[in-house]
C-alpha cells in the first residue's frame, strides 16, 4: 500500500484516562489517524497498552517513531491519571518523544468554546464530597492553551451561584445538576461532556508547537487535591 500524503508528518500519540472510560488517539501532523475508546473501571490498566499497540500496528508506525506524546494529566480519577501519565512518560522516554501534559478541563472546554463562540464556558469534573473541579473560560480568540491553569475546587452550591444566563456548562458530572441550573444556562452535548484523546492530541500539538513540553522525569498527575487517605493522615 502506498504511503499517504501525510506519512512524513511527525506522529503524535494522545492519551486520555481521566475518568471511568478513556481513549487513545493517533495523529500524523494535525491529521487524526484513529481513536480508540477503552473499557470502564479497573480493566483500563489492562486495555491501554494493547490499544496503543493496535493503533500503531494498524497505522504501520513503530513505537520508536512516535515523535510526540500528549496526555491529559488531571484533574480526574486518581487511578486513571496515574495509569495515563505513567504510560505517556514511559512512551516519551523510550522513543525520545516530546511530551506535553494537558489540563482535563481545557480538553472539555475547547470544543464547546469553538462550537459556541461568544459564550462563557464552565468545564466541570466530579471531585466527590459535593465538590467540583471547575474552570471558567471567557470567550477569547487569542487563547493559548496550557499557558495557565484556571482549575478551582468549588462546592456545588458555590458553582451554581456563580452561573449567569448565556453560560455553557460541560463535563460528565453536569447531568447531576441539570435540574438546578439557572434559566439561560445551557448544557453541552453528551458527546462533548466526555473528554477525548482526539482533543488531547489536537491541543497538545498546538502546545508543543509553542514549546510547552514536559520533562518525562518531572511530570506528575495534576490531582488538584489530596486523596481522602492523604487528608486523613494529615488530620492525624
Question: Can you tell me the number of structural domains?
Answer: 2
Assigned CATH superfamily of the largest domain: ATPase, nucleotide binding domain
In what range is the share of β-strand residues? 15-25%
Q: How much helix, percentage-wise, in residues? A: 25-40%
Q: Compute the average pLDDT.
A: 91
Q: Enter the CATH topology name of the largest domain.
A: Nucleotidyltransferase, domain 5
Number of strands: 10
Structural class per helix/strand content? alpha/beta
What string, H for helix and E for strand, traces the elements in order? EEEHEHEHEEEHEEHH
**Which CATH top level class of the largest domain fits?**
Alpha Beta
Radius of gyration: 18 Å
* Low-pLDDT runs: 1-5
Tally of contiguous helical segments: 6
How far apart are the first and last residues' alpha carbons, in Å?
64 Å
